């Protein structure tokens, strides 16, 4: 084995007496003393512009700045679940249909299950079908034609009158033959009480639920109009063509409003108008 030589530290000590440090420093207040004085030179005045007054802003506080940093973005997902199986006991294998059927048959035989199902809803006392009877009281036929009935609307006040809209969509829309609709008194099937005379065949005619004398209807031309039974069968107002539907009006329906005079109309053109 070879012994490694030990490293020797290189140090040097220097010592000096205090008296050789020099005279002690003593500080005291002393007046100002001009070291250099540079007088102004009037010849330099033409190189500068004198400002009077001079406004200088000074900020003694620390400089601050404002900045924005995007924080960590949270990721959100929306998921749903289709719950088609109820709670099953642990010993029932859902993958075995026979096990589920056996368990259902066992529960359905329990008296508590029958009472629980009966209390889920109120079952009214519906008379048997054999005891219900229905008979024809009146038949209302269109005078002088056999066109299909497109809509029926009962009068709101007791239902004493019935509005029937007739239209034959198989005919050409520019057909100029009369295309009337009718208001019937349910107690008189011999003749209509009022003949509605629209400029185009009506596909829907509805009573106003708040006014028993007014009706609105939708026509094959895409226009809608309203009638007042007290003013006869002519339309009181018909919407102009530039605001009408681009296709025939299938349905009109009054909406629940304060004045009771607002309704909507729908058409195969994909637009619902209020």
TrEMBL record:
Similarity remark: Belongs to the dynein intermediate chain family.
MF GO annotations: dynein heavy chain binding; dynein light chain binding
Coiled-coil residue spans: none
Gene Ontology biological-process entries: cilium movement; outer dynein arm assembly
InterPro entries, sorted: Dynein_IC, WD40/YVTN_repeat-like_dom_sf, WD40_repeat_dom_sf
Superkingdom classification of source: Eukaryota
Alphabetical keyword list: Cell projection, Cilium, Cytoplasm, Cytoskeleton, Dynein, Microtubule, Motor protein, Repeat, WD repeat
Principal location listed in the UniProt entry: cytoplasm
Any one GO cellular component localisation term in the record: microtubule
Annotated compartments: Cytoplasm, Cytoskeleton, Cilium axoneme
Full protein name: Putative dynein intermediate chain 3, ciliary
